[in-house]
Amino acid sequence: MRNMNQMMKQVKKMQEQMQKAQEELGKKEVEGTAGGGVVKVVMNGHKQVVSVEIAPEVVDPDDVEMLQDLITAAFQDALKKTDELIAQDLGKFTGGLNLPGLF
After folding, report:
1. pTM for this structure?
2. H or E segment at 4?
3. Which among 14, 30, 32, 11 is positioned nearest to 22, based on CA atoms?
4. Nearest Cα to 29, choosing from 46, 13, 12?
5. pLDDT, tens digit, for every residue of 27-47?
6. How would you write 37-99 as a 3-class SS string?
7. Which residues pair with 54 in a beta bridge?
8. Burial of 31 by CB count in 10 Å (0-12 exposed, 13-18 middle, 19+ buried)?
């Protein structure tokens, strides 16, 4: 019984640490870019978009498709970097397991 109480205390402590780590992720930001930085997307560790920047010289009414592609690429870059940040910050709790959708 004593071992069970000790284990429950450890689980509770780990849950608290994990919750704190998840809260801290919301304060961290990553930047995804495309086109050599003409399009930038900033996301926080909760995968929420914080800002989008588009350089004026890339806005061409005759080539909207290129701008759309650049925005998509910048979002994908930001998502990839956010996933890496999450894996780095929360990996110690998951033991390196890949648990998509958990965070």
Report:
1. 0.75
2. helix 2-25
3. 14
4. 46
5. 999 999 999 999 999 999 999
6. HCEEEEEECCCCEEEEEECHHHCCHHHHHHHHHHHHHHHHHHHHHHHHHHHHHHHHHHCCCCC
7. 39
8. middle
